[in-house]
Amino acid sequence: MSLRFLSIARVGSTRKQIAVAYGQKGGNQNVAILEKLVQIRHRLARLLGYSNYSDFAIEPRMPMTSRKVLEFLEEMSEQLSDLANRELTVLKELKMKEEGDAQFGMEDLLYYMKRGEQHKVDLDIGEIKRYFPVKLVISGMLKMFQDLFALRFEEIKDVEVWHDTVRLFSVWDASSSDLLGYFFLDIFSREGKYDHTCVVALQNGCMCSNGSRKVPVAVLLSQCPKEFDGNSALLRFPEVVRIFHEFSHVVHHISNRATFSRFSSLRLEGDFAEIPSLLLENWCYESISLKMMSGFYQDITKSVSTEACQSLKRRRDMFAGLKLKQEILLCLVDQIIHTSENVDIDELIKDLHPKVILGIPLLEGTSPASCFPRIAVGYDAVCYSYIWSEVFAADLFATKFKDDLLNQHAGLRFRNKVLAPGGSKGPLEIITDYLGREPSLQPFIQSRTRNAL
């Protein structure tokens, strides 16, 4: 909640108080716990023959070494510096106009980013929501995936399911009419239901000993609102993107043609698993595809306007340089503490902060390490992964799809070359083979700069 206040607090001294309180919320106790966790991880890695924990954690992933990750993060930071500096200049000018003070601190970042967005993006989020009735979003999404990947979805009626709002579909290859798998849509909220949007693999695809193929089965879970008094329930735009992202995982699971079950699930190599879904998120920001999933709730023939589509993309990319710089700082801290022993984490952040965040010092009295949960649990030594996946996804989109979003030939080739192998081939081999060259980070930098201030 404190971060929400930081984006709306107009008084600078209030923002600073909130930011300092938030930056102290974990306190020295959390930092001590984190330092102990890091020591134990290094000990584990040495027992297994590695020089540090980061090399142990990254060896089975796409970069393979911590050195490669550090080089990637440093290059990303450098490439983003020009963009981030331009963004920071805009924020400083806004602060000077509003408060008569050009001195800019971390406590000002969220507030003036929001103010900048209000100045530069003509978009009413409440109005946009009225163009995304749940049923229309789902039907448009299903049509788009069928058209792009040469698939055919058939709903199976009168089947026993665990709730009357759950729908079951079979998936067929549109050309060969081969059955590829099944998926359930369990997207409406109800009491006692798991409250996240995600995909669960119910059955992996694989070849059986008799030569037949066991087909994959998945379920998409979400918490969409239900219709009330005959009025169509509406989705906020971030919910549209989230469902589209997760359904991409469903299609990845169904398209997987690996021989063995071990390589057929959604449990792909960590840095690769999100790349197809992050690639396909781009369709949520392009006019031709977004119009397929939208329609005014009182007249669905009126899709969201081209101008609104452009504003949504511009909003996504607003202050991308500064946002990514903050993420890169976290990733660098994660890598350094997991490659070197006995690091004073607070001092490390204090030293790195102005170097990465364009000269802005760490807010005095705060200890960001006390509130970095991803480093402590779940993403230890692999916080870089999401940015890494975004970079690869941007390259795939710019190279293969940007100029023809609904090109079925490109989609079918992506399905066969990238989605079908699953874990049976190395991710870098899959992507390099599909692109016909080594991946590049330039398309990602260019995509974030294109809609810049």
From TrEMBL:
Belongs to the peptidase M3 family. Signal peptide: none annotated. GO terms for biological process: peptide metabolic process; proteolysis. Its cofactor is Zn(2+). Keywords: Hydrolase, Metal-binding, Metalloprotease, Protease, Zinc. Binds 1 zinc ion. It comes from Aegilops tauschii subsp. strangulata (Goatgrass). Residues 14-447 form the Peptidase M3A/M3B catalytic domain. This is Peptidase M3A/M3B catalytic domain-containing protein. The keyword Membrane does not apply. The keyword Cytoplasm does not apply. SUPFAM superfamilies: Metalloproteases ('zincins'), catalytic domain. One of its GO terms (molecular function) is metal ion binding.
